[in-house]
Amino acid sequence: MSRRKIYRETSPETRLCTACGEPILRNLYIEKDGNLYHYGCYASEKEKHFKCIECLGECNGLEAPRDWSQPGAPRTCPHCGSIGTLKNLWWWKNREKL
Questions:
Q1: Residue 23 within any structural domain of the chain
Q2: Closest CA to 36 of 55, 11, 53, 72
Q3: Do residue 17 and residue 35 come from a single domain?
Q4: How many domains are contained in the chain?
Q5: Would you write out the chain's pLDDT as a tens digit for each of its 98 residues?
Q6: Burial label, 67 (beta-carbon count in 10 A; 0-12, 13-18, 19+)
Q7: What's the pTM?
Q8: CA angle at residue 12 from 60 to 83, to 5 degrees?
Q9: Which domain holds residue 82?
Q10: Is residue 25 located within the same domain as residue 55?
Protein backbone atom coordinates (compact mmCIF):
# COMPACT_ATOMS: atom_id res chain seq x y z
CA MET A 1 0.00 0.00 0.00
CA SER A 2 1.39 3.41 -0.94
CA ARG A 3 1.98 6.21 1.55
CA ARG A 4 -0.38 8.51 -0.26
CA LYS A 5 -3.18 5.94 -0.05
CA ILE A 6 -2.60 5.42 3.68
CA TYR A 7 -2.69 9.18 4.32
CA ARG A 8 -5.93 9.54 2.32
CA GLU A 9 -7.84 6.48 3.56
CA THR A 10 -6.97 6.40 7.26
CA SER A 11 -7.46 8.94 10.00
CA PRO A 12 -4.51 10.02 12.19
CA GLU A 13 -6.07 8.17 15.15
CA THR A 14 -5.68 4.84 13.31
CA ARG A 15 -2.18 5.59 11.92
CA LEU A 16 -0.24 4.81 15.09
CA CYS A 17 3.53 4.47 15.23
CA THR A 18 4.61 0.96 16.26
CA ALA A 19 7.57 2.35 18.23
CA CYS A 20 6.12 5.27 20.19
CA GLY A 21 2.35 4.71 19.96
CA GLU A 22 1.66 8.29 18.81
CA PRO A 23 -0.45 9.19 15.73
CA ILE A 24 1.57 9.66 12.54
CA LEU A 25 0.85 13.02 10.94
CA ARG A 26 3.90 13.18 8.64
CA ASN A 27 7.19 11.38 7.91
CA LEU A 28 5.48 8.00 7.54
CA TYR A 29 7.69 4.93 7.08
CA ILE A 30 6.14 1.60 6.12
CA GLU A 31 8.12 -1.51 7.00
CA LYS A 32 7.97 -4.61 4.77
CA ASP A 33 5.62 -6.38 7.24
CA GLY A 34 3.22 -3.45 7.08
CA ASN A 35 4.16 -1.86 10.40
CA LEU A 36 3.89 1.92 10.43
CA TYR A 37 6.56 4.16 11.98
CA HIS A 38 7.57 7.79 12.15
CA TYR A 39 10.78 7.90 10.15
CA GLY A 40 12.77 9.09 13.20
CA CYS A 41 11.31 6.34 15.40
CA TYR A 42 12.22 3.73 12.78
CA ALA A 43 15.83 4.93 12.65
CA SER A 44 16.21 4.96 16.44
CA GLU A 45 14.56 1.52 16.89
CA LYS A 46 16.93 0.05 14.31
CA GLU A 47 19.90 1.28 16.37
CA LYS A 48 18.70 -0.18 19.72
CA HIS A 49 19.93 -3.65 20.65
CA PHE A 50 18.49 -5.92 23.32
CA LYS A 51 19.37 -9.21 25.00
CA CYS A 52 16.79 -11.56 26.53
CA ILE A 53 17.52 -12.69 30.08
CA GLU A 54 15.59 -15.96 29.57
CA CYS A 55 17.07 -17.34 26.32
CA LEU A 56 20.09 -14.98 25.90
CA GLY A 57 18.97 -14.16 22.36
CA GLU A 58 19.91 -10.79 20.86
CA CYS A 59 17.64 -8.61 18.73
CA ASN A 60 17.16 -5.01 17.68
CA GLY A 61 14.23 -2.73 18.43
CA LEU A 62 12.44 -3.58 15.17
CA GLU A 63 12.47 -7.32 15.90
CA ALA A 64 11.07 -6.82 19.42
CA PRO A 65 8.16 -4.37 19.19
CA ARG A 66 6.42 -2.93 22.24
CA ASP A 67 3.05 -4.23 23.39
CA TRP A 68 1.05 -1.02 23.84
CA SER A 69 -1.96 -2.88 25.30
CA GLN A 70 -0.08 -3.61 28.55
CA PRO A 71 0.98 -1.01 31.14
CA GLY A 72 4.56 0.12 30.66
CA ALA A 73 4.53 -1.22 27.07
CA PRO A 74 6.99 -4.11 27.60
CA ARG A 75 8.91 -5.65 24.72
CA THR A 76 8.42 -9.29 23.73
CA CYS A 77 11.40 -11.50 22.89
CA PRO A 78 11.13 -12.72 19.27
CA HIS A 79 13.10 -15.89 20.08
CA CYS A 80 11.38 -17.33 23.18
CA GLY A 81 8.23 -15.18 23.42
CA SER A 82 8.77 -14.06 27.02
CA ILE A 83 7.38 -10.63 27.88
CA GLY A 84 9.42 -8.00 29.69
CA THR A 85 12.68 -9.95 29.86
CA LEU A 86 14.56 -7.91 27.25
CA LYS A 87 17.31 -5.69 28.60
CA ASN A 88 19.18 -3.00 26.72
CA LEU A 89 22.46 -4.42 25.47
CA TRP A 90 24.33 -1.45 26.94
CA TRP A 91 23.08 -2.55 30.37
CA TRP A 92 24.05 -6.16 29.67
CA LYS A 93 27.62 -5.30 28.65
CA ASN A 94 28.17 -2.94 31.63
CA ARG A 95 26.40 -4.95 34.36
CA GLU A 96 29.66 -5.63 36.24
CA LYS A 97 30.38 -1.89 36.45
CA LEU A 98 26.93 -0.99 37.88
A1: yes
A2: 11
A3: yes
A4: 2
A5: 677 888 888 888 889 998 888 999 889 998 888 888 999 999 988 888 898 999 989 998 888 878 777 888 888 899 998 888 888 887 666 666 65
A6: middle
A7: 0.73
A8: 30
A9: 48-93
A10: no
